[in-house]
Amino acid sequence: MNDIVSSVFGKDFAPHGYCLAWQDSLLALHVISDLIIFLSYTLIPALLGYYLYKKKANRLQSSVVILFALFILGCGVTHLMATVTIWKPWYYLQGYIKLVTALVSLTTVIYISLQIPKLIKLPNLDDILESNEKLQAEIELRKEKETQLLNSQTALESSKVLQGAILDNVVDGIIAIDEKGLILSFNKAAENIFQYQAQNVIGKNIKMLMPDYYAREHDGYLANYMETGVRKIIGIGREVIGMRKDQSTFPMDLAVSEVTLDKQRIFSGIVRDITERRNKEDELHQAKEAAEVASQAKSEFLANMSHEIRTPLNGVIGMVELVLDTELNEQQSRFLHIANDSAELLLNVINDILDFSKIEAKKLELSPHTFNLRDSVENTLSTLAMRAHQKRLELISIVNPSLPETLIADSGRLQQIIINLVGNAIKFTETGEVVVRVEANEPSKTNYKLLELHISISDSGIGIDENKQQQIFAAFAQSDASMTRSYGGTGLGLTISKHLTALMGGKIWVESEVGKGSTFHFTVQCGVENSTPSHVAQQHHKLKDVKVLCVDDNATNCLVLYETLSNWGMRPFSIENPLSALEILNHADKNNDAFQLIITDYQMPEMTGVALVQKIREYPQYKKLPILMLSSVSSITEIEQSARDILINAFVEKPIRQSILLEKISAILCANTEQEPLSVSTEVSKTNSALHVLLAEDNLTNQIVIEGFFEKQGIKNFTIVDNGKKAVEAWQQQAFDVILMDVRMPEMDGFQATAAIREQEQTLNRPHTPIVALTAHAMKGDENLCLSKGMDYYTSKPIKPNELSKILAHISPVLAEPELIPAKTVNDEVFILEEALSSVGGDVEIFKRVIAVFLKSYQPQLQNLQQAVVDKNAKLIFEMAHTLKGSTSNFAAHKVVAQALKLEKMGEADDIGDSEATLKQLEIELQQLVEALRQF
Predict the structure, then answer these.
(1) Among candidates 857, 861, 851, which has minimal Cα distance to 933?
(2) How many CA atoms does the CB half-sphere of 857 hold within 13 Å?
(3) Rounded to whole angstroms, what are the CA distances from 154 to 148, 164, 535?
(4) Whether pTM exceeds 0.90
């Protein structure tokens, strides 16, 4: 030990500093190595400290690392100290070892430096535990998803199995093909339809399932779609022809759709064999044809039935009317009137059945034309007035004064609805009133020339139970089975009315309460025409501020009179109690505001109108006070003589027509209390008694009826034959002014006889003989049929004396002095008044009616003619021009007739080159005629 110490500290040992005396390489080896080792040992703790700082390690980890760092640091210090003192031989060896240690240390430092960032990222224990928990949760979730996926795969496999089962068992065949038309799939339904097994068609072209024609089309359709995208089959269902394995063909429905799968375009087709459906359609078509034949047979049956019923009915009505003209006692007259009413009722039933038949066959058509609304409503109610008055019912019409004067619609069908509803109201009402109100709903926002009329018919009758209010609109139905026994009727009126309102663009409904009456409402669409002011409106200024006392026990009548007179500018005062009328008169007279006119009802419970007038006339100051009385026609006849005695100035029939009321008021006021002659005209048109008539009628009863008509008209020169052949022979032997020709006769019917006469007129150059068709047929088109067969006029059976006499008067008018014509502006260049009047026997009233009819009907005739010219339809031009010529010839309007005749000849010759120019001239002449007639 001492030796070691002495060797270290002794004088013979050279310290480290003396190593400078050694070799330079040895010195460098020791110094550099120790410095590197010291530096490395120093950096390692520094790096470990940085690791602890970044990692934020727990206490145990930090302690281990710190101890390790201290150890390394101590080693480094030891190496540093070794450079100071060392034994020389050992110093050599130590130098080499230090060098190796230095290199190892340097490598360790570099490696640890590179790994520190990765070590920093490694989780600590808590992180590892947390990560383990998350990993476990993820494992569980993945297991759950794997289970779900497994279940989905199982469900998918089951779905594929189910889908396959469905596709194999659907009724329709399902076939898939590729872009080349090769079959990819073929379900069992397709196998059944085409009689092929799937394995025999898959991979083959779809054209094997088509006949040649469709196979050739298929390639073109598919290629065109692939190139242009234009669809002719794809996405469009259509009917095609398929071909089975045995080469038989069948009709089928085909629907093709496209789908893209794995970038491959696949076309799937659904096919259905429609052989059975086609067979049923053929059966239905045959059934339809059979039904149409049956419907035609039914129509013919109804026409024949109409003829067979109307023919004897004509005899019944005609003979009853002839007997009624003879001297009868009161009982006989009553019985015959009942028989006549029953026959008329039967005729109405026949008309209802025919209308209902036309509705069923959907052949009920409208004929729109221009008409006067107020006149149409008031005239319609006049035809029902007698029935209402017989039951002592008030029949009242209220037409809103703001409504247009003229409208465009089928006024005949409108009147038919009103007659049905008012007739029912009268039938089911024992006491009280029936009120007809005519108003308008809001005008159309899209068509200002369209107006919706709203008409209501209110009564105070028995009413209808709420549960049965819809039932009554059904065919042959009434609200109670006992109604037919109690009130009669077919139950068709409301059904027909419902169809007519629908046909006219409206609807019908009812509001009712049992025991409190009913209100039937219906609406219809009408066109609005710009018309000139009415005759009623032109006279309003004459009545301004005239004070009127209205006496009527019916409150509704009082209200209607008050509103009507107020609209005319008069000052009405209404009272329902006639006993108070004198007090009111006297009170007004004392206050210097006397009444200038009295309007009183005749039938009042406490005092009749006649009695009231008698009381009024007892006062000297009221001797010349104008008095107008309201009553029914029958009542007017009863009180005519007493009216002369007590000076009633005028009578107005109920229901009140405003035009007549205005004329009567104006007349008695202008006459300054001079009495106006009282007249109730019921005469038929007069016929020229010099007529030479040929009657062709096979029914003996009808012969007697018409013979009686001849006698009443004073016609003595007539010949009667019982078939068409005899009619032709009679015409050949002598000339007749007119032939009354029955349509249905034995040996030769009326059409054949007319054709023979018309042919011989041409060949023998004989003048045209007017022929009047007599027929019991009343179906739509019968009149046109008769006219198209060469006949000039048409009248249906039972014969209506007034209608037939008008026809005969038109053919050969009575030569009589015309009545004085009121001062009017008539342009003789447009129509010749005297000549026009001669066509109606000089009767101004009849002439006015003819004007009214023409003004209602000329527009449809002109429109049909205009359309015929546009369509270049020569036949229709001939017919329409002929019709218009005939209707305007009644007015001696020679300019219009000349233009119409030109068009008629053009159409007859089928040379219509100048028809447009002629039509324009006709329109100008016709417009002038219309304006002149409206001024008359």
Answers:
(1) 851
(2) 14
(3) 10, 15, 94
(4) no
